[in-house]
Write a structure and sequence with these properties.
The chain is mostly helical. It has one domain. 79% of the residues lie in helices and 0% in strands. The chain has 5 helices and no strands. It is globular.
Length: 121
Amino acid sequence: MDIVFSIHYANNYWIILLPAIMAAADVITGFIQAQVNGTKNSSVMRKGLYRKCGELGTIVLVWVTCVAIELSIKYVAAVSTYVCIMEALSILENLKAMGVPIPDFITKKAHEIDSQINHGE
């Protein structure tokens, strides 16, 4: 969890903007990957879009809660960072499924970070 709390955003608007950009990149790479592999499925894409709206809504909800009870913005930044890491992993998976060569050390490091956040390893 230390990695999540150690991230500092340049400005507070990046806390919502960066995950939104990452989510859009994931949707785009997911759509292209589905086109390349002939696996387009509108219900899968729709569920993914709902999930992304939920992720961004969670960031906003945490932000409002932190403001309301005067908690540090670092909690919102931590949730935002977690969402960005999840989106980055998904983008890497989409690129790999498209046939884009992704060096193993990048994939390995990304999964290590995810494991540290999710499992405290």
